[in-house]
UniProtKB/TrEMBL annotation:
The gene is FBXL13. Pfam families: DUF7885, F-box-like, LRR_6. This is F-box and leucine rich repeat protein 13. GO terms for biological process: SCF-dependent proteasomal ubiquitin-dependent protein catabolic process. InterPro entries: F-box-like_dom_sf (IPR036047), F-box_dom (IPR001810), FBXL15_LRR (IPR057207), Leu-rich_rpt (IPR001611), Leu-rich_rpt_Cys-con_subtyp (IPR006553), LRR_dom_sf (IPR032675). Keywords: Leucine-rich repeat, Ubl conjugation pathway.
Amino acid sequence: MTPELMIKACSFYTGHLVKTHFCTWRDITRTNENLVLADKMNRAVTWYSFRLQKSVFHHWHSYMEDQKEKLKNMVLRIQRIICCHKLTVILTKWRNTARYKNKKKEDELISKHELQLKKWRNRLLLRGASAEKSNFPEQSSSEVSLVDETLECDISQLPERAILQIFFYLSLKDVIICGQVNHAWMLMTQLSSLWNAIDFSTVKHMIPDKYIVSTLQRWRLNVLCLNFRGCLLRPKTFRSAGHCRNLQELNVSDCPTFTDESMRHISEGCPGVLYLNLSNTTITNRTMRLLPRHFHNLQNLSLAYCRRFTDKGLQYLNLGNGCHKLIYLDLSGCTQISVQGFRYIANSCTGILHLTINDMPTLTDNCVKALVEKCSHITSMVFTGAPHISDCTFKALSTCKLRKIRFEGNKRITDASFKFIDKNYPNLSHIYMADCKGITDSSLRSLSPLKQLTVLNLANCVRIGDVGLRQFLDGPASIRIRELNLSNCVQLSDVSVMKLSERCPNLNYLSLRNCEHLTAQGIAYIVNIFSLVSIDLSGTDISNEGLSVLSRHKKLKELSVSACYRITDDGIQITDSAMEMLSAKCHYLHILDISGCVLLTNQILEDLQIGCKQLRILKMQYCTNISKNAAERMASKVQQQEYNSNDPPRWFGYDREGNPLTQPDDITSSKGRLELTVEKSTYSSEEEAA
């Protein structure tokens, strides 16, 4: 046995042993893999069966949920149908009851009116009988005692407070006349409180300068307010106003003789002035220098149409104590003011709240920017007649706390100004954008989130239509809106009026003048705006039927239907009987226009004198059956009267006897307009009052 053979033998044995064990290990491994694979297959089959069952169950579950939802909706629909049926039954019963009560109320009202008319006629008969008896000189003792008792009423015996309340309603002219009645009345007119406010503008052509001087000299310690508007007085007369040490309000607007020298005397003697109106006077920079030196508490200042002061005069406002308490400033028509002048105003009058700049063609965006840099408390702005103002001004005003804003006749303002109006001006309550051609429906959509909006004037904004107004009314702004002017918005139709009746519960004033697409259906929706007191339907398609529908409105006080050519004599009948009813019921009537009512006679003037004792203005144009003598007697009972007995113009559509004319073509082609206005109270619109 050699070593080589031993190595070979060991190697062979080792290799054989390894081969034998490897084969055994391989056979065992293969057996285990088969078992694992079989186990996995069994688990896979089980998992697949579970997923299949789960999928089937999921579909079944979804189906059952859908069925339950359908069943639930079906039950809700049935409940709604039952509820609607119950409401229909209840509303039907309520409607029948309401109709019965309304008919009963109307019958009672008619009976009451007939009774009042009967009493009214009896009063007229008694008055005629008393007039006949007055022709006889004999009177019974009872009649004489009755007259004596009547004459015993003397208002001088009333308390001073009551006397003042009566005389406060009189003008200066009337107070002077009352002082000439007797000694007692003269004493009443000399109550000191009655001369706190003196208005010389109403008697500027009647009272001489010496009377004004003596009056101011006598009541110099009591006078608080003086009004010289339009008075042509001597400088000495203006100088006498300087003796009123307690003067707080002074109006010398439109006084051509008022000069800087007059202002010097007044400023030295009246340091407590709060309100000063210098509009349309000849003041210069000398007066501007006096304002901050003497009027330390000045709050309201009007320099409208004063064109003789310059930017340097505005710089004087910051001298001394300055006019830092000024809250109202009117610079209308002051075209000489430049951008630098507005900077001077901003430096001296930082507390301005109300700013009015009308008739200012030289006003630009830079002027407004210079002003609002330091006047951030402005709440109201008026820019009428400023054609160069653009959207940049709106952007500059975003730093102010605006509540009222007014633009008119501006073509450069577009929808961009209103894009972020709800964020920049959340407290806006009054918006006047009349005759701004660049405003479209997009602007109305931007205005809809304004919760404080009460007055909106978009007259002559011809690009506004039903879509924009509907979007505006869908927002919270419609809830508080009180006054809406949509005159000449020719694209509006009945859809807008229907939306107004649904969304505007507090609307009082509405103007739809010249909205040509408004029909009888739209007129019917107006009746559902129960809060409405005034409406303008001039130039619309309203007819006699529309007037009949509007007559059902309970609160309507003012109606304007001028240029409504579909309204005929059948729609409006005014005769003596109607005026008799008017006199018997409307005791507080102030203004009455019966022009063109050719069927009225002298009898209505007697009725008005008895029933309408507060009548102030009476218009009787083309009243052919009212005599001149009767009109002259009536003129002494009212403050203003217009009368003529000429034949009515051809465009009225009827002759002097009320018969229709035979040539309708000539009538419709006429350029005249017929306007009927029924008024029971004075104007209450804020825009008219402004």
